[in-house]
Structure formats: structure tokens, C-alpha cells
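User: Hi! I'm working on a homework problem where we have to compare a predicted structure to a textbook description. Could you give me the structure for the chain below?
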Amino acid sequence: MKFQIEQLIVWPRKTNFPPQIITFHLGKVNVITGASRTGKSAIIPIIDYCLGSGTCSIPIEIIRDNASWYGIVICTESEKILLARKVPNGVQVSQEYFVTRGQTLAIPTMIEAKNQNVTGIKGLLDSIAIVPYLNRDENDGAYNDRLSFRDLTHLVFQSQDIVANQNILFYKTHETEHREKLRNWFSFILGAETIEMIQARNELKEVDKELLRRRREYERAKTLSNEWLQNLLGQLNVASEYGLYSGDLSSEKSIDTLLLIAKGILREAPNAPKTSVETLTQARTEIYRLEEQENELSQDIAEIQKRQKDIEQLEKNLSSFQNSTKRKVERLGISVWMKENSQNKNICPICGGYEHPDAGSELEKICSVLERYERVSVVSLPMPAEVEREKAELKKELKILLEQRYDLQQ
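Assistant: Happy to help. Predicted C-alpha cells:
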């Protein structure tokens, strides 16, 4: 992409003065020099403003008070484009643009009316830069919008404050929105990836979403199938009790086998049931087996509930112990009591005698030890991480056992 600025134009408010034009040499490094406060620092803000910036950092006073329009002439591979934007009205940037295009351009002496707006200019610049009309959907975040020409300006505008700041590399990247968006698109800007690669990643994410949806549907269908299988086994057991089937019935048989058995019972069903001692005995045996399994599951559930209760009691006892210890320390306050009763350094606060010349220093040692133990006593003891992990495991095991018991009961 060829995109070079050939001219910068400032149209004065007074129409009797001609526009001021600065011409740049294409394909070369242009160095602009001049005395202080002659407008050198306004060049980059004017270019940025003409290229669709949402803010205006052109210095106030002379360069803004005496101008009516700012403009630049852009040279591309096929044509030249004049982009002129009206001076801001106070702090409010202007939405009015004047645009002309062609192989050669004549700079108008004055601009009377707009013929374009900011939205149209951004669309024009996006088409010149050939930025992809795609979002980076493969990145889960809040800054995956499509790339625009304005995002590319962060790489070309390096103002004085950016060059002098060691913590910022590119223009406006001190703002999270611009920094994260530039980071997401940097590989494409450098040419490390193509539009086809971005499209492939987006398609891959859509495939992943579809796969996840299908997996959820499969798990839901699997759950319903298991419930249906238990219901079928129950009905076949009833048929066996009435003597309609004398073979083996177990959940280990495939669904197709159980369906064939059910179809055979329906096809060969007699007008009346053929209940016999053998079928009743078989039914009772099956009931006893199921009851034994239910009892085993109930015992396992009761054991887990007991372990959960023990953990809750442990947490309750630890909290109660800490509160009790804290109340005892606050109520007794031995070190404080000894200090308050040892104001007279010559009298021992224990026996009241004068025979202990070092009573004060000895009491200081005792009080310091007591204070250390009192501080340790009121420190909260955290519950070990193993306890929380054990609670989570018990909750998980309990849920599985309850589901198994429910299926067995069904």
C-alpha cells in the first residue's frame, strides 16, 4: 500500500488571505525546523485530525483561532486525495469534511461547504488500507473488533511525549482499548498472518462451538437413554414375574437384545398370564438382590454424610475454640494487670515486700513473655486446605451415590 502525505494546508478564517501550504518531498525524510512557537508541534495533530481522529490535540490560540479548515493531500498508487476538515468548535470536533480526488488536484482558495462526513472518510481510509472486514472471534476478550485505519495510525504517529516516555512504545497505547486491540492485530499488521488464516481461525471457533453443542446434545440423549433403559428393564421384570419370559434379564444386555425380547413377548403374549412358583421365586430373588444393592448404597451414603458432619463439627469446634481463647485473653489480661500493679518499682506486686530490688526488671521480662503468648493465643488458625478438598470430594461422591440409588429404585 502506498500512502504518503504530499501537502499540509491551513485555510485562514479571513478570506482575503491565501491558504498556507507546506509541501513534503515524497519518498524522503522531511525535517522541519523553525523558531519556537511557529507551529512545528501542530503538524502531527493536524494530520491526525484530518485522518478522522475522534479528538483534537491541535494547540489552541493562533493556529486554531485563525484557521477555518485543515487539510492534507494524500498520494496513493492510483490517485491523489484532498482531505479537508473543519476547525473544531471549542472542544467539540467537527464532523464536516471536504474531499476531492484525481490524478492532479487544484487546492481551492476557500472551502464553502462540506461534501462528506467522518464516517465516510473512515470508510474511504479503510478501503485504501485494505483492512479486513473481519472480527478476531478466536480471541475471547472485549477488544476483538475489526481492524480499522485508525488503529494503524498508532504505528506511524510518534509525538514528542511518546518518544520521551520509556513506558509507551506506540501512539495512544497508554489506553487499554487501543493497546489490547493493537496487540490482537499486530501479527496481521506485520504480515505474519493473512486474511485467510484469520478466516480459518474464525471458522475453527465456529466448529468448536458446534462440536460443544453436539456433545451436550449427546450427553442429554445419553441420560434420557439410560432412564429409558431402566424403565424397559422394569417392564421386562414384570413380564418375567407373570411368566411371559423365562430367560435372563440384566442391564448388561445390549439395548437391541432387550428390544428383541420385548418384541417377542408382545408377539407371543398369551391371553392370560402364566404365573408359576418358578417365576415368583425368580422375581423375589431379583427383588432381594436389588434391595441388597440399595442397602449397600444407603450405607455408603450414610458414611459420607457422617464424614461431612464430622468436618462441619471440626470447623465449628475450631471456631468456638478461637472465640473462647480470645475471650479468655481479653477477660484475664494478666500482663496488663501486672503492669498496672507495678507502678512502684521498689515494691513487689506479688508479695508487697521491699526485699526485691530487681522486681521491676523481672516483672518486665515476665510481662513480655505473657504478652507474646497472649498474642499467639488470639491468632486465627486457618482451616487446612486438605479439609476443603475433602469436602469437595465428599460432595461429589455423595451426588454419584444418590444418582445410583435413584436409578436402582427406578
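For your comparison, note the following. The longest strand covers residues 4-12. Strands lie at 4-12, 20-23, 67-75, 80-86, 96-102, 116-117. Good luck with the assignment!
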